[in-house]
Amino acid sequence: MPGLENRRDPLSIALWLLFALLLLAFLYWLIVVGEGTYLGRSAVRLIYQLGAGVYDQARANVTKSDQAVLLPLLRAALDGTPGSRVLDVATGTARVPLLLAAQPWFDGAIDGLDLTPAMLARAQAKIAVAGLGRRVALHQGDAGSLPWSDDSFDLVVSLEALEFFPRPRRALAEMSRVLKPGGALIVSKYPDLWARTLPFKGVTRRGLTRLLERLGLAEIAIREWQLGHYELVTAHKVVRTED
User: Fold this and answer.
1) Are 132 and 97 within 8 A, CB to CB?
2) What confidence tens digit (pLDDT) does each residue in 40-50 have?
3) Where are the domains of the chain?
């Protein structure tokens, strides 16, 4: 009947529009909020491989505060340790190595690890331009299987990456393993509201504190960093004393 078909058309259109909106919302969550992490490490690597050329430009508004906000935390974490060794996990285009190695008071060495060749290539080029190649070594690898022995580093850093590792808790365990007793850990995390939108990936403040304590870390502090986007977590590996 023509009249019935006419009434059905608007309903069909509304249902299709609703489906399209839900699909777009799902894709936004999967690719933007989750950065492809639920699709596996190959998807995450592909996203950053394709975006490496514009990554620094896209993050410029965030990194411009690093000298004022991030650098003092890095310096305090090293606490004047001479010849310190630093590891930056998910180093990207060498944000942390470039910031730290350029400081006149820093006399140590920095290793940067990342999964994505294109990000490492841009990092290497920037390090060469800055003349910091003798201070910084870059490695391609997985945060869940760090290629260093136990108790190797005075400071381990990982920024804007934890939720996108294949196994975030495994990555934290590896960071703790390679950290020297008394050494410092600095990682970022999504605020709890966002963390709860990433099942098995995001970690709440309470959950992360418990996990770090189980991994042998103490003096755990969580503070606002990039309002609404990231929080910054600092902790120290407990020095075990023999009875």
Assistant:
1) yes
2) 888 888 888 99
3) 2-58, 62-237
Is the pLDDT reported for residue 98 higher than 60? yes
Q: Are 147 and 127 in contact (CB under 8 A)?
A: no
Distances, alpha carbon 13 to alpha carbons 2, 19, 20, 27, in Å: 17, 10, 10, 21
What token pair was written down for 32?
A: 């933007």
CA distance 202 to 200: 6
Q: What is the DSSP string of 49-77?
A: HHHHHHHHHHTHHHHTTIIIIIHHHHHHH
Q: With the C-alpha atoms ordered 61, 153, 211, 37, is the resulting torsion angle positive or negative?
A: positive
Q: Token digits for 29?
A: 């969550």
Q: Which amino acid is at 197?
A: T
- The pTM of this model reads 0.88
Question: What is the dotted CATH code of the domain comprising 62-237?
Answer: 3.40.50.150
Matching residue, tokens 């890095």: 74
